[in-house]
Amino acid sequence: MLIKDGIRIDGRKPDELRPIKIEAGVLYRADGSCYLEWGGNKIMAAVYGPREALPRHIQDPTKALVNARYSMASFSVEERKRPGPDRRSTEISKVTSEALESVIFTELFPRTTIDICIEVLDAEAGTRCAGITAAAVALADAGIPMRDIPVACAAGKVDGVVVLDLTSEEDKEGEADLPVAIAPRTEEILLLQMDGHLTYKEFEEALELAIKGCKQVAKLQRQALLNKYKTFEVK
Amino acid sequence: MLIKDGIRIDGRKPDELRPIKIEAGVLYRADGSCYLEWGGNKIMAAVYGPREALPRHIQDPTKALVNARYSMASFSVEERKRPGPDRRSTEISKVTSEALESVIFTELFPRTTIDICIEVLDAEAGTRCAGITAAAVALADAGIPMRDIPVACAAGKVDGVVVLDLTSEEDKEGEADLPVAIAPRTEEILLLQMDGHLTYKEFEEALELAIKGCKQVAKLQRQALLNKYKTFEVK
Amino acid sequence: MLIKDGIRIDGRKPDELRPIKIEAGVLYRADGSCYLEWGGNKIMAAVYGPREALPRHIQDPTKALVNARYSMASFSVEERKRPGPDRRSTEISKVTSEALESVIFTELFPRTTIDICIEVLDAEAGTRCAGITAAAVALADAGIPMRDIPVACAAGKVDGVVVLDLTSEEDKEGEADLPVAIAPRTEEILLLQMDGHLTYKEFEEALELAIKGCKQVAKLQRQALLNKYKTFEVK
Amino acid sequence: MEIPEVKRVSAIKKDYLARLAKEKKRPDGRSADEYRPIKIERNIIKKAEGSARVKIGNTMVLAGIKLEVGEPYPDSPEEGAMTTSAELPPLASPEFEPGPPTPDAIELARVVDRGIRESKYIPFDKLCIEPGEKVWIVFIDLHVLDYDGNLFDACSLAASAALQNTIIPNERYGLGENKPLPVGSPPVSCTFVKYENFIVVDPCLEEEQIAQARFTVALDKNGDIRAMQKGLRGSFTIDEIKNIIKRAQIHAKKIRKLLGEGNGKENQKS
Amino acid sequence: MEIPEVKRVSAIKKDYLARLAKEKKRPDGRSADEYRPIKIERNIIKKAEGSARVKIGNTMVLAGIKLEVGEPYPDSPEEGAMTTSAELPPLASPEFEPGPPTPDAIELARVVDRGIRESKYIPFDKLCIEPGEKVWIVFIDLHVLDYDGNLFDACSLAASAALQNTIIPNERYGLGENKPLPVGSPPVSCTFVKYENFIVVDPCLEEEQIAQARFTVALDKNGDIRAMQKGLRGSFTIDEIKNIIKRAQIHAKKIRKLLGEGNGKENQKS
Amino acid sequence: MEIPEVKRVSAIKKDYLARLAKEKKRPDGRSADEYRPIKIERNIIKKAEGSARVKIGNTMVLAGIKLEVGEPYPDSPEEGAMTTSAELPPLASPEFEPGPPTPDAIELARVVDRGIRESKYIPFDKLCIEPGEKVWIVFIDLHVLDYDGNLFDACSLAASAALQNTIIPNERYGLGENKPLPVGSPPVSCTFVKYENFIVVDPCLEEEQIAQARFTVALDKNGDIRAMQKGLRGSFTIDEIKNIIKRAQIHAKKIRKLLGEGNGKENQKS
């Protein structure tokens, strides 16, 4: 039993997020960066670019290429992960690239590449949403022109209840997981994946909850960016 | 005992081919294609090109490159094969490329590549000969100028008898296998490999039989190409 | 006990080298080459270049690239080694390239590469020093302009005694190994690695001994090159 | 890093398709909610434990199933396992290249895999030979032969059909007689793309080349959702996604019939 | 084959640094024998058995330790084993690229490994579970997060610090209670580079970019030498090397204090 | 995809060789049926269980044999096994590049392998240690040191010679005393190339560079055929091939003597 008297095993209510901490501009070398803690997840994201795409034959004369790379440190999971990309991280890199490219004004930077590095240092369920959220802050920190700052959050179903932001145990034992990324101003959906079992009605409910979660996280993103600029002012 | 009263375990006479079915122009995207069934073998071949060879530094300014790729589907054999080329298929791709290039007027298409894909979908002895035979039809279907349509067939030795077109069991238990590809008009030998044990006299006999087999198969190739054009006429 | 009454298990004194045989110009295709036997080591080294560096984007417009590749034959060690570079040989290739580049007038050959191949055919401790020593002779044989001919030799500590040129058993059971490469005219240090346990004083002693060893080996290098030119004269 | 497919479409063709889209017309004359003809052939590869060839229009894929005895995962010692791979060989398209699986092939295999896994189509608890030691591993290999769009649905359908006629090769491993692989009710996958604000089911290649966003949903026999995947760099509104799922529920019912499902038969199988 | 880093530095910057060097000045104002500020944070990765983040100036690396049960080497059946890897991910520098470890990353990992191994920091004889069958394998993974020079010292220090707080995960393998990994006294690594005949400790990135030669020495608590590595295509004189080692002995004593060593504590640990 | 070697030959050289060929002359003055000098040295690698260096003219290859204990194939539980690899290292030719085996290297290794295997040179039934569990695996590694044409014959000869002096390393595995690897009668390989309708044995590099077709035949002590391989993009007539085999039978007899065969000795060995 994962939910008892409406309270989840980590003490949260069904529509409650895990604790989140976001810091922008934490790296010296990167053009933009973000460190994010979300529950037991620790994520470092960096952005390089726009810079000339090399080798030249991959250049697109009409726009920048957006190339996100999601990667898990070998010590970030219970059983040591072998270094290098596996099939799961290849898929996540792909859907993350697509979600982030949605909001970037890529046509401003033809023949270039915008490289986004997402390193999962400590993992505890929901790393793809945490990674997109961190990468979006790093993009803003790098000054990449975007029509909105993307944000991601998952909803799911556990013990028959639609809940927000699953833990590892809820993800493993629960009935469904629905990671969603949106452009918060317009509520456009940039990423949506799902596995498990949801009726159409449950899906509607879960989607609504995920979007609500995204909007809460979006506030923390903006606060983190604001904090960085404040730091500058103080100096 | 693989031969009894002059009859082989699958009921064939020593100089008899397995049943063969050839169909040309079966794929929509490819420039030329062929589907071939030969005994228990099922082969799909496709041709793309001539098209610009890329990256440019591989281009030959005097002629087209001919690049055949023989590949077995992971489910085409008893024990599942891991995807990707192994040493055997690399060798077969090489000798197949060389055999087919023999007849193509490559000097007409400098700086290009002619790509030939041979996919073994179901395998039962003799896949390299079946692959070359199918590829040759696909080349003709693609309209690649050739001085002849290559064709391949194996002979071998089983229970001391020189036989045509070995089955898996004959290949495994028999004494020799001799795959041969020819240009049927001139009887030039484009491919010849052999492993096993043949006296010089047996070799002469086996080679003659293989060439006889090739010529029978060549008729089926021509019929298949004719059938395709007939189809056009009917429409 | 590896040292008894001042004598090592293979009968050598602490400051004595193993037998060394060097032959220059042994290969037909290479621009320069050297065959070297050093104790149980057998090494073949070849040099190609300076030649145009390809692909072009790796060219350095100010100088030649020096690219040494240390490689062990699969049959050169007790347990068969899988072909291809491992982490150890990658490191040795790197430090060898750096050591040899030190003495080459690379700025004379912009946009080129000087390729140095070191193949260990039979291995018995000290292959990296033997490889550098052989490569240096091959570079001289190829006529590559150098300000000196590098030479390498290891010292170490065994049974508490500082010794020259360790055997396999001494390397395994001993307390320290200190491979050193120098430019013998100036005694500049081109390569120095060490693992084990040495006090500062022991290090000073071992370094002095290694340099002494290098200078002995340098004489054999020069003799080998001389022998080659003598051969020409005789013809 | 891949150059987006869209680059390869000429500006003229793109304009033409965009003009058509504004009139809610598709390049091959179909309506927005019309699949191309679907054809399923089963049991065509003798060496495979199960197989099916699926054509959707000119798109053709072949699914082959192999079973091997292997070790169970430590956390499910009494359950079989499954692995799904997709090959996009150069045979099937001038754009496909030889080499290890591209991100496209990996995404395709993983989406098909999730549909099958989450709908519990294969009862893994029936694939245990010796608890903790030996279980059946089901290998689903998807081989694309001709690529004219909508590989997600073609591959999903081929995998489902191939699993329906799969044999457990007990004899090869000295484990008694061969018998059919038990299967439940298959997932049915429906894929849509959006271009110029026109959302169509079963995209052909030309449509995929200019599509801004893609959506795939896998439904079970009750019309419940078992897997979803949004793809490409465009976006959908919430309403568009809700609408897509409702349209998919209608298509899935029809496609399910091609699998011999949707008429009470599925109860006999499980 | 790598293009030397030095190519990427502009001629103007190189001249500027060379002029500074002649006056024995460094680009960030430090003296030749001055480290940048060093900061060690421990126990920051929950999923790892041990971890530490080390900052030296702007350089930041993370070491994570994992332990797994594995087979011993045939020639040391009663001893555990250790393997050290370094990742130079594109996150940490615009010059790093994804892919398998480069020669730079391999050299870095092997030099750190040798320092730990030769100083007998990990007592492998205490990592035997079942002689000849099961031993603990210690995985040291070095993850560079921000690269502004001197990765050798940063990685060595991070590995040493992470091993100090590492747990043997007996519970995960049903081997009783977790307990701390026993460790001896750590090695301390000091790295110098030489440019324009100026030899400085703890090079920053700009200095590494124009350096002709590099020297790393790992020292034990007695100041004895446990590992050395000369790098890059320049050379050192004998006296320069002797002098470097003496300078390193002074630095190592100070750095050792950051590890809680050098004050008699190390005896309690072993 | 490789650019054919022929591209690298200048047009002038090609014309020159073609003119020579018309007069049935070879660039190094040999007759069409003349091998370059052949030299075999055995037992030169101490760490190998067997070894031989073969020179044919300027071409030099080294074969090293290693034996390891391994599992037999399921379908031959009482037989040892063999695997043959060829390395074309950059040491041996300006055209060879580092990296995994090229198609050329793979073809070379496989043709040598077939000659040895089909002539039953190694009696695999004598390499069983424990039926179904442990057998000897023979690793034949062919290392090209200097490439001036005709690697097929040089590698085949080196492998045969190396196997003749190979030791079964029982002591290393605690299986009693070392003893010689039993061998039968070796295959002898003869290679011909055709250019400008001139067919010559033992091609040197220049001839290989302009050759249109290549033919290799491996013969046993009776002159029977054990393996054949036609290579390159040209063709042979039936009569040409028959003629080549007859010429090969004469050469093989002579080469066999260099292996200490052809004088009744082979009976003592088997």
From the structure above, extract its key features.
heterohexamer; A: 235 residues; alpha+beta; Ribosomal Protein S5, domain 2; five-stranded mixed sheet; globular; D: 270 residues; four-stranded antiparallel sheet; elongated; disordered N terminus; disordered C terminus
Report on this model:
The complex is a heterohexamer, with three copies of chain A (235 residues) and three copies of chain D (270 residues). Chain A has helices at 87-101, 127-141, 168-173, 200-234, and strands at residues 3-4, 7-8, 20-24, 32-38, 41-52, 65-72, 112-122, 151-158, 161-164, 176-183, 188-198. With 235 residues, chain A is an alpha+beta fold. Chain A has one domain: GHMP Kinase, N-terminal domain (Ribosomal Protein S5, domain 2, 2-Layer Sandwich), CATH 3.30.230.70. Chain A has a five-stranded mixed beta sheet with strand order 3-4-5-7-6. Chain A is globular. Chain D has one domain (35-264): Ribosomal Protein S5, domain 2 (2-Layer Sandwich). Chain D contains six helices and twelve strands. In chain D, strands 1, 2, 3, 4, 5 and 6 form a six-stranded mixed beta sheet that branches. A four-stranded antiparallel beta sheet of chain D has the order 10-9-11-12, with helices on both faces. Chain D has a two-stranded antiparallel sheet with strand order 7-8. In chain D, a hairpin with a 3-residue loop joins strand 5 and strand 6 (134-146). Classes of the chains: A alpha+beta (235), D alpha+beta (270). Chains in contact: A-D, A-E, B-D, B-F, C-E, C-F.
Largest interface: A-D, 40 and 38 residues
Strand content of chain A: 25-35%
Rounded Rg of chain A: 18 Å
The whole-number mean of residue pLDDT values of chain A reads 95
The helix-and-strand class of chain D reads: alpha+beta
Tell me roughly what share of residues is in helical segments of chain A. 25-40%
Low-confidence stretches of chain A: none
**Oligomeric nature of the chains:** heterohexamer
Count of structural domains of chain D: 1
Shape of chain D: elongated
CATH topology description of chain D: Ribosomal Protein S5, domain 2
Q: What is the CATH topology assignment of chain A?
A: Ribosomal Protein S5, domain 2
Please tally the β strands of chain D and state the result: 12
Return the structural class of chain A: alpha+beta
Q: Which CATH class of chain A is shown?
A: Alpha Beta
CATH architecture of chain D: 2-Layer Sandwich
CATH homologous superfamily (4th level) name of chain A: GHMP Kinase, N-terminal domain
